[in-house]
Every structure is written in structure tokens, then in C-alpha cells.
């Protein structure tokens, strides 16, 4: 681990521009990387925080085909949505680029050419899956089939999402083209491969020995598993119609594989930033005094810890990542987040539905961050963290301090008198928090760091609750001057300490306290006079607002509607039964009827006893619908009745027919209703 680096290069995984940003992306990558970058800037460090849209690869082509538009239209649409979402949410990138930009195409092409000229690639003719009907080779995501390891029949050509196994498309059992549905054939094609096996010894020494004690266990474990399993050459080119051209002769119609070009996007984004700012880019990627940190989700660990480092090592002039603090996955209300199934909380929609509450989501996601294991986001937990923590602890402390300062001193920070032991102990504890929070952040434990930040607010609340200045003011106003002075120092410290986690709150609190520039970490650690005597603060404003049950229920209902829509879309229709003759159908006597009475069957949860007017007679029918309908709700209901069904005794009651039912998208029973104008006894034929 690099100690005291001259500069930091921080990268956040490039989001695919085939959809908007959701909370899983935020929790896994963008909130932690932003916390880290903001913290380092407050430390006065030289920080470069880069990202950009990942605009090549099969995901884009698939989206374009599905929507009937061009890949360029897809990437332009979602790049705009993603950029605005990040900006509105306060993700403080120094540069956000695009892999479709010329500077990236040039950078990726030059990188490939350098390795090609050095002889680092293996040129090989292989058999690949080919869709003869579509007249094209099939990229991994254009192939589905049965996973050879777990039997999942919907595995993709690169990965089984059920068991997590990494696959090759040719591994699939019964593969099918997602373009035409045809069974692909094998066809020869030439590609270039990066021989990862050549770098096995280097990777063992660099990661398994060198980073055994400082990389997260989930990252180290996955890398070790890959290396222990033996590394093999991996293709860096693909037969595609969308991406960066392979810059060598004989490679017409071939593109750089997206996993090869995407991480180079960090470098091209740095170049773009340097050109705009008039700076040198190379120190941020080639100077040994630079600390390179990749923030990613666990699905990108292999690419950032094995493949990209092997590429950098092969090129020879680049530094390697000091750490890759990958997070696990965030689930939503007990289910895996899914872009294709719309099972997500989309950032742009959240910002519309919860205006000016960016920090509430940042807080909830950091408090529940999947740092070492998969975690679950629920709207009830989100509400509780806002109401019980941000409002009740942080907001409550600040509100009391500002209100009392304005009430007692017209908003002017009072002159303290002699400090008591409690005052001294409180200010000493306050000075310790920057180091405590720093320790957690430097070890990428952002959830822990946020907990320590909230302990600063708890310190303030406890101090006021114990000291009770609102009572002391009557008999000892001099003592209250000191109490309020101490409380204001805690408030001032919070305005800076919260900035990495809650940047909008930090800005608002600084405005209320009229602190023009953020206090540095060192100032809070070393100085008790953070907001000086005689300083004029502003009027009280609520930092956070309570979120009501109705707002949360609206979000839960929205997800339930999505679940219902998914069920309807994915519902498997039963196969047609064996053919019958007309005479078989004619034997059934189906009539229009009306339910006259309905009562529950004693000691039976599922059965209702119905009196039905069939037009022929009024008869008793026992129906297993009690769990779906209340008796009083179905009286007068028009129904379809099979009247010539042989009677059957059910719990001592003779049932003389059957009511026709089906299920809706929510798997609930519904009546097969005749037209309202049809009279009882009318036959259905």
C-alpha cells in the first residue's frame, strides 16, 4: 500500500449506456468513490476522479435492436440521462467522458497497437457460434442456452446469472441465437488473444502476496480463486458491428472487445481532463508516487484485478492499482435488482419524486452499503433512517443550536467563560473524530465512517441534553454562553465532516452558520475555536424533513405494480390439451347464472356455499373461492355455470354444478363473466 502519495487517481466503473442509473450502481460504486474523493480534497490532496459512459459492446447493440433505433441513438439518450443524474446527485467527477469520443478511440487503438507491435498478442483462428439466418457471428450476449454447471436454461454466452459461473458461448448446451431464435452453427474466425497465463506468476506475487493484508477479503478471495484455477488466453477482439475498429491489417469487420477498451476509458478520460485544464496527464497514470484506486462492483473484480493489470503490465509504462475496494450487490425489497425487469429505484426518478433529498438516499445507501456481503434496500428502512437518524439526531441537534443562539444572542456566537470539565472533555472528544473518521475512510469502511460522523451529532445532542441551557439561562446566563459556544463548535465541525457523505447538507449547514469555506480536517483536529466569538450566524432552517408513510407506500405500490407487470409478461401459458370432438364439447351445459346467497363453509377456509339462480332452478354450488372473495362481495354477481356436472358431496353439502374461474396477472382468482345483458339460464355455446 502506497504511503503518502503525491496524487490520487480515482476511477469509478464506467456505466453502460443501455439504461439509467439505479441504487445498486450508486451503493456499489458511485457513492463510495465520491465519499473517498471528497474526503481527500478536504485533506488538501491532489485528486483526479474520473469516469465516463461505456458505449460499446453487445449490451448497446441489443438495446438498439430491441428499440428499433441505432446504437448511436441509444448511447446519446442514456448518456444524457446518466450525466444529469450524476450531476444532480452531487457525484463530484473531475471528468466524465464517453468511450465513443475520438480521444478514447485513439487511446484504445494506440494501446492495442503498442501491445501488438511488442508481440504480446496471440493470433488464433477459432470456431465461433454463427447465426446463418442473420449472417453474423454471435457475441456472447446474443446466445442463450443451458448452463453446463447448474442447468439454468436461460444462461448467457458469457455468464450464468443463476450460479454466477463465467462461461464461453461454446460451453452452452442447446445454444440459441437471441436474434433469430435459430440454433447457431460453428464457423472459423480469426482473433487476437491476451495470454493471461504469461502473467500468472506476476499476478500471484503482486496480489496474492503483495496485497494479502490490505485488499478486501471478497476481492482477494475471488482473484485467488481465478488464479488458482489457472489463467488462459482471453480474446481482445470480437466480430461485431459496433465498437472500436481493430487497428491492424486483416481485421476488417472486427472490433476491440469491450472489456479491453472500457478500462482504457479511465486513461482517455484523464487525457480529456488534462487537455481541458491545461495539465499533464501522464503523472496520474505513470508516476510511482500516484495512488490508483478502482471503485467497482463485484461483477467487475476479475477485469480490474487480473485482466486490466495484465494489460498495463504488458504495456510497461503504467502504474498498477493500489486497491480495488469492490462492493457486493444491493438487492431491492428482497429481490435482485434488474434493469431488464424494471426492478429498480432509478436515480432520475428518485430525484423527481424526492426533490432536494439527495443526501437522504446517500445516507441510506451508505448506512446499508454492501461492503462485505449482499445487502437489501427497503423503503421502510429508508424512511426509518431519515426520520429516526437524520431528522431526530443530526437535524434535531443543529436546529436546537441555531434556534437557541438566535433566541439568546440574536445569532451572534457568544464569548465563552471558564470551561468546565464537561466542556473540556466534549471539545477534546470532538477533536478526535476527524482521525477516527479518516481511519475508516482510508480503509474503505464508509459505513463505519458514516456511523462515526453521526456520533459527532450524538455528542452534540448529549451535551445539550445533559447541560440543559434552556433551564440554566434563568439563573446562570454566563454559563449558557459557554454551553452555546461549545455546541456551536460541534455544529461547525459537522458542516465539514459531513461533506464527503452529505454534500448538500454540508452546503446548507455552512450557509446557516455563514461559514464561507469548508474547515479542513486538520483545523477540526487541532483548533477548538472553529466558529469565532462575535460571528453572526443565520436563521434556523430544517436540514431534513420527516418522510410520511404515504410517500413510502407510493413507492412500495410502484414496485408491486412492476412485479405484477413482470408476472404478466413472463407468465407461461399452459399448453393446449388433447383435441376433442364437437360432440364432447356439446355434452357440457354452460349457463348464465346469478349468485343469490353466499356463506362460508363451517371449518373450511377455502369453501363458500353459494345459492345460484341458473334460470333452470336455484341450486347449491360449493366453490373453493373463499380465500379470494368475501361472501358479501359476490352476491348479485353474474357467473358462468356448468350445470350438468354430476353432483358431489363436499363436507356434507351436495354441490350441483361448477362456477367457471381463471386467474389474472396478480395470480388472483377472477370470474369468467358473461355479458351483463345475458339473462339467467341463457346457454353458452
From TrEMBL:
GO terms for cellular component: cytosol. Residues 584-685 form the TRNA-binding domain. The keyword GTP-binding does not apply. Pfam families: Anticodon_3, tRNA-synt_1g, tRNA_bind. It comes from the Bacteria. Keywords: Aminoacyl-tRNA synthetase, ATP-binding, Cytoplasm, Ligase, Metal-binding, Nucleotide-binding, Protein biosynthesis, RNA-binding, tRNA-binding, Zinc. Signal peptide: none annotated. SUPFAM superfamilies: Anticodon-binding domain of a subclass of class I aminoacyl-tRNA synthetases, Methionyl-tRNA synthetase (MetRS), Zn-domain, Nucleic acid-binding proteins, Nucleotidylyl transferase. Its EC number is 6.1.1.10. Zn(2+) binds at residues 147, 150, 160, 163. Its cofactor is Zn(2+). Its main location: cytoplasm. GO terms for biological process: methionyl-tRNA aminoacylation. GO terms for molecular function: ATP binding; metal ion binding; methionine-tRNA ligase activity; tRNA binding. A motif ('HIGH' region) lies at residues 15-25. PROSITE patterns: AA_TRNA_LIGASE_I, TRBD. Binds 1 zinc ion per subunit. ATP binds at residue 339. It is found in: Cytoplasm. It catalyses: tRNA(Met) + L-methionine + ATP = L-methionyl-tRNA(Met) + AMP + diphosphate. InterPro entries: aa-tRNA-synth_I_CS (IPR001412), Anticodon_Met (IPR041872), Met-tRNA-synth_bsu_C (IPR004495), Met-tRNA_ligase_1 (IPR023458), Met-tRNA_synth (IPR014758), Methionyl/Leucyl_tRNA_Synth (IPR015413), MetRS_core (IPR033911), MetRS_Zn (IPR029038). Belongs to the class-I aminoacyl-tRNA synthetase family. MetG type 1 subfamily. Is required not only for elongation of protein synthesis but also for the initiation of all mRNA translation through initiator tRNA(fMet) aminoacylation. Homodimer. HAMAP family: Met_tRNA_synth_type1. This is Methionine--tRNA ligase. It comes from Flavobacterium pygoscelis. The lineage of its organism: Bacteria, Pseudomonadati, Bacteroidota, Flavobacteriia, Flavobacteriales.
Amino acid at each position: 500500500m502506497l504511503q503518502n502519495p503525491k496524487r490520487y487517481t480515482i476511477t469509478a466503473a464506467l456505466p453502460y449506456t443501455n439504461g439509467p442509473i439505479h441504487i445498486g450502481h450508486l451503493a456499489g460504486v458511485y457513492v463510495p468513490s465520491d465519499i473517498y474523493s471528497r474526503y481527500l480534497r478536504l485533506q488538501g490532496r491532489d485528486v483526479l476522479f474520473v469516469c465516463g459512459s461505456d458505449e460499446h459492446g453487445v449490451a448497446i447493440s441489443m438495446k438498439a435492436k430491441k428499440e428499433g433505433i441505432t446504437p448511436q441513438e441509444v448511447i446519446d439518450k442514456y448518456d444524457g440521462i446518466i450525466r444529469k443524474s450524476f450531476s444532480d446527485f452531487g457525484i463530484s467527477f473531475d471528468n466524465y467522458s464517453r468511450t465513443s469520443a475520438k480521444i478514447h478511440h485513439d487511446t484504445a487503438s494506440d494501446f492495442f497497437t503498442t501491445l501488438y507491435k511488442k508481440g504480446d498478442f496471440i493470433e488464433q483462428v477459432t470456431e465461433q457460434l454463427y447465426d446463418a439466418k442473420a449472417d453474423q457471428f454471435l457475441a456472447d450476449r446474443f446466445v442463450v442456452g443451458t448452463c453446463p454447471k447448474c442447468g439454468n436454461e436461460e444462461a448467457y454466452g458469457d455468464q450464468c446469472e443463476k450460479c454466477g459461473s463465467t462461461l464461453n458461448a461454446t460451453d452452452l448446451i442447446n445454444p440459441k441465437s437471441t436474434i433469430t431464435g435459430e440454433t447457431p452453427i460453428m464457423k472459423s474466425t480469426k482473433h487476437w488473444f491476451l495470454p493471461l497465463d504469461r502473467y500468472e506468476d506476476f499476478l500471484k506475487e503482486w496480489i496474492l502476496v503483495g496485497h494479502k493484508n490490505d485488499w478486501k477479503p471478497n476481492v482477494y478471495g475471488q482473484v485467488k480463486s481465478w488464479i488458482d484455477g489457472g489463467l488462459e488466453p482471453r480474446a481482445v477482439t470480437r466480430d461485431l458491428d459496433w465498437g472500436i475498429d481493430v487497428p491492424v491489417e486483416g481485421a476488417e469487420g472486427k472490433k476491440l472487445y469491450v472489456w479491453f477498451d472500457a478500462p482504457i476509458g479511465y486513461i482517455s478520460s484523464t487525457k480529456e481532463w488534462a487537455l481541458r485544464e491545461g495539465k499533464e496527464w501522464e503523472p496520474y497514470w505513470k508516476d510511482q508516487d500516484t495512488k490508483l484506486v478502482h471503485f467497482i462492483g463485484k461483477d467487475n473484480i476479475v477485469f480490474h484485478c487480473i485482466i486490466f493489470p495484465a494489460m498495463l503490465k504488458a504495456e510497461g509504462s503504467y502504474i498498477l492499482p493500489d486497491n480495488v475496494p469492490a462492493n457486493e450487490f444491493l438487492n431491492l425489497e428482497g429481490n435482485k435488482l434488474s434493469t431488464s425487469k424494471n426492478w429498480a429505484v432509478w436515480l432520475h426518478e428518485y430525484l423527481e419524486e424526492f426533490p432536494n433529498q439527495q443526501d437522504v438516499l446517500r445516507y441510506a445507501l451508505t448506512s446499508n452499503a454492501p461492503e462485505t456481503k449482499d445487502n437489501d434496500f427497503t423503503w421502510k428502512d429508508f424512511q426509518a433512517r431519515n426520520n429516526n437518524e437524520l431528522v431526530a439526531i443530526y437535524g434535531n441537534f443543529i436546529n436546537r443550536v441555531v434556534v437557541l443562539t438566535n433566541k439568546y444572542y440574536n445569532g451572534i456566537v457568544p464569548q465563552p467563560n471558564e470551561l468546565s470539565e464537561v466542556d473540556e472533555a466534549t471539545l477534546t472528544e470532538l477533536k478526535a473524530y476527524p482521525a477516527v473518521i479518516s481511519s475508516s475512510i482510508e480503509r474503505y469502511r464508509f459505513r463505519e465512517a458514516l456511523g462515526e460522523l453521526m456520533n459527532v451529532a450524538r455528542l452534540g445532542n448529549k451535551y445539550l441534553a445533559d447541560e440543559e441551557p434552556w433551564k440554566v439561562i434563568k439563573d446562570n446566563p454566563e454559563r449558557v454562553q459557554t454551553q452555546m459556544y461549545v455546541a456551536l463548535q460541534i455544529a461547525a465541525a459537522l458542516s465539514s465532516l459531513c461533506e464527503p457523505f452529505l454534500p448538500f447538507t454540508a452546503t446548507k449547514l455552512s450557509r446557516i452558520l455563514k461559514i464561507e469555506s469548508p474547515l479542513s480536517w486538520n483545523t477540526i483536529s487541532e483548533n477548538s475555536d472553529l466558529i469565532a466569538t462575535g460571528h453572526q450566524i443565520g436563521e434556523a432552517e430544517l436540514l431534513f424533513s420527516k418522510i410520511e408513510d404515504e410517500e413510502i407506500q407510493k413507492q412500495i405500490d410502484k414496485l408491486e405494480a412492476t412485479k405484477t407487470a413482470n408476472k404478466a409478461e413472463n407468465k407461461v401459458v399452459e399448453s393446449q390439451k388433447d383435441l376433442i370432438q364437437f360432440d364432447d364439447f356439446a355434452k357440457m351445459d354452460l349457463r348464465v347464472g346469478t349468485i343469490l346467497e353466499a356463506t362460508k363453509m363451517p371449518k373450511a377456509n377455502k369453501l363458500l356455499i353459494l345459492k345460484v339462480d341458473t334460470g333452470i332452478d336455484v341450486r347449491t354450488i360449493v366453490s373453493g373461492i373463499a380465500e379470494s372473495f368475501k361472501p358479501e362481495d359476490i352476491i348479485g354477481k353474474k357467473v358462468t355455470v356448468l350445470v350438468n356436472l354430476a353432483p358431489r358431496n363436499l363436507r356434507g353439502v351436495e354441490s350441483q354444478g361448477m362456477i367457471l374461474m381463471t386467474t389474472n396477472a396478480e395470480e388472483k382468482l377472477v370470474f369468467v363473466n358473461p355479458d351483463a345483458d345475458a339473462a339467467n339460464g341463457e346457454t353458452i355455446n
